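Might I ask for a little of your time on a matter of protein folding? Here, with my thanks, is the record as I have it:
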Amino acid sequence: MSQSKLPNFIIFGSTKSGSTSLCNYLVQHPDIFISKRKEPNFFLYDEGSIITNKKGKTTVYTIDWYKYWFKKAQEKAIGEASVSYIANEQAPIRIKSRLPDVKLIALLRDPVSRVYSHYLFNQRNNKHEGEKSLLKVIEADQKQGSPEQYFEKGLYYYYLKKYFDIFDRQNIKLFLFEDFTSDPLKVVKDIFTFLNVDSSFVPVVGAKDAPSGIPKNKTIYNFIYKDNFLRKALRPIMRTLFPNREKRRTLWTNLISRNLSRPPLPSETRKVILEMYKPDIIKLQELIDRDLSKWLS
């Protein structure tokens, strides 16, 4: 397999920041290929590592395994999206070793909103035993060294500094979550230019990533998120009625949203978490040359 079958761009950044939607917009471009495997996470591990996931499936992370996900790529821009690369100290070193000229694209979300969204997502999926507040979950996560990395994943300056130290700044493109939500088409077109593909191409945008929240109705939630006979039966019908994939995603996201309630983050909790993140946010402003005063308020 040739070097050309390795990606020349990687999407990473904070969780719950719209990376799934971004990939769905970018991949519509005729000159862009993105791995169909969601989050290969190859650079989280040393090559040759043997990892068993929560479902019991074992993967040997070899370079040939990684190349497999790009073997059909004929496009000019070849990429993958693994948001967890941002909070792994060895990831930038491993990426630089294998892909020295790769272009890096990151979406960053206000870390307090991000950690709360992360918390609600896991609450929805019954990952917290008993009734635990967000602060208690963060505290337990830090003490136990959980892979969830609730708090650590929001230390953007700490982790991004390593990328800026290792890669040329011109090969790193950063966007704030609010940039993406307010004008997704502008962000997508900026990325087209960054990847040196035709920026006049206009993708269908609009469908957003599934929101976080607590299900109002568990039966509806299980139907939406878990494989079942009815879901499988409806798929070909939906594809016939709505051949455009983004329109199907929009309908699906709207259905999800209507069944979720998002309790507000208590103001005192927000203040405590913001104080924890404040030093990192202040340093991040200087690193990326962006005004982050809204994050600090």
